[in-house]
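Service request form, structural biology core

Requester: graduate student, group of Dr. S.
Request type: structure prediction, single chain
Budget code: on file
Notes: please return the result as structure tokens.

Sequence provided:
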Amino acid sequence: MKTYGLLGKNIDYSFSRGYFSEKFLKENLACEYVNFDIPKIDQILSTFENSSVHGLNVTIPYKEQIIPLLDDLHETARNIGAVNVIKLTDGGKKIGYNSDYHGFKNSLTPLLNSKVEKALILGTGGASKAIAYALESLGIAYTFISRSPKKDQLTYQQLTKNIITAHKLIINCTPIGTHPNIENAPDIPYEYITQEHILYDLIYNPTETSFLKKGKANGATVSNGLQMLILQAEKAWEIWNS
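Core staff response, request fulfilled:
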């Protein structure tokens, strides 16, 4: 039996385990999917040595931390600077890929309109790097919003009516609003959101976060991260079996 799994911390909620377990059952595949829930990244080394493990997904907080432990990176993952898929080859090599980029770009594209020229990315973690890379490929300028901003980034307190009006796409890459803290939402001035805006939340649990509800109340187009997760999962499966 081939083993695949998710590498992360505090990942009982995992979408991936449920998705792949159902896939393996439906397609009658001799595979299993397990969670590798570890407190420190170096504890994954023994898993790499397990010959039954053929591929891993990577989630918070290890998408960047995992890179030094890998043998090689696919070009996209190298450009993004974050990994969410690892392929373990028959020769024992550990190669990092990024399918978040694929999942986000292909789930966002059907929502776009000609007025979307600029985006705000809320959060600066590993996932946000893939989002930025996808926006670049779509020709959409972006600005990162952070509680601890670096150069060319903004704080939440700096968001004005003019900034919100100019950025018709707002993407939440933070965990704010995830179950069970579903009443929470990123601290942006929602009163300036209009029907010309698109609000995209990488969170999928709950289905409609407070962030999305606030945007929807002002007429914005909204989307959660479920379709992105499905697309990135199928891309991971393609990578593992290529």
